[in-house]
Here is the input.
Amino acid sequence: MHISLDGFTAGPNGEMDWIKLEDGIFDFVTTFTDRSDLAIYGRVTFELMDSYWPNAADQPNATKHDKEHSNWYNNVSKIVVSRTMKDERKNIKVISGDLAENINRFKNQLGKNIMMFGSPGLSHSLIAEGLIDELWLFVNPLLIGKGNPMFKDPNKIIEFKLVESKQYTNVVALHYSKA
Here is the structure.
């Protein structure tokens, strides 16, 4: 998840144009998608991703990352957590109701890792329920002042430990696991 130095994942109107992207980060993220066979999204992030990634590789100016991630996106099974979305399609399962029960059912299945891109609202719920095992935070060197915070009051202390960090040109990636 990309965050600003002051802890926001998006501006007050969902702006993400401040995120610093670079090839090294894309290559690094590909190592995670290669180890994941299930992606989880909140509805808003899913709709954003689904409007771009299915055909990104087909665009005349598609980058290496566009081609790799589009291929992964088109083949990975997806969970969308939503109270309003109803249309399930190939490789897409919509869940609502008891979040912990639903997510634990997927976590207990055989397979690779479950990966989540974005979806800060969903991440608040998953963290509060103790369902996040690892966090990768891509800290961007700027303050945006207000917006959607990465963390909201989980009503209890949840401890993570630093596993590793990686420095890129403008971004520091911090890897945490649940303590």
Q: What stands out?
A: The chain has a mean pLDDT of 91. DSSP finds five helices and ten strands in the chain.
